[in-house]
Amino acid sequence: MGIYRRKDKEGKHCGPWYIKFPTGVNPKTGKTKYTSHKVGFSRKLAERAFAKKMLEWQERKHLGLVKKKQYTFGELVNWYLTLQRTNQIKTIYKIKQHCRRLKEAFGSMRAEEIKPSMIEACQEKRLTEMTYRGTLYQPASINREIEVMRRIYNLAIREEMVAKNPCWKVTRLSERNARDRILSKEELDDLLKVLPQHVADIIAVAYYTGMRAGEIFALTWDRVNMKEILI
To answer: Which residues have a Cβ under 8 Å from the Cβ of 45 and sit 6 or more positions away?
Structure first.
């Protein structure tokens, strides 16, 4: 884009001046289209012609006469998951889980049409849904999900794929999931006495190691060393 002259067989610039300027945007790909035009043998005339075309282009963009590609939210998610910075996140597997659920809720919708009220309605609906473990989704998990959505929009705004982020005005759910206290050793011993042995073993492992239920239930014997008392 700019002013230029063509080269002869020896690679030297010669002949009249040309200008190359933007004329529109491909609605399917979002890429800017350019046109070249011969001006004449005056460089100053070419510079003035190019400046005029660029001014016209900026005015068209400012007035909204240039149509950009309209992305669906699903397309934004797919684009986000291809980014190198996304795939360098240590918890990428959780990011993908959040993205899958977000696509289920908003994937087919145009990204520009999603409103804060729609996201809040999705939050409320998610609170009534069950996880694969058979438990209700917790506010903390839903907040992480919306944080991913907010990140997708922020990056898309930077790349001029969308104009605004509907997550900006969405209030985080109150998590209220702090534990009141931890059982004392005496309370634990009293609890273990009244539990079936297989349940007591699980509770004891959780208490002394801090392992989560999913980690304990997924534990296999090849990862347990009873001789050295190690997991």
So the answer is: 17, 39
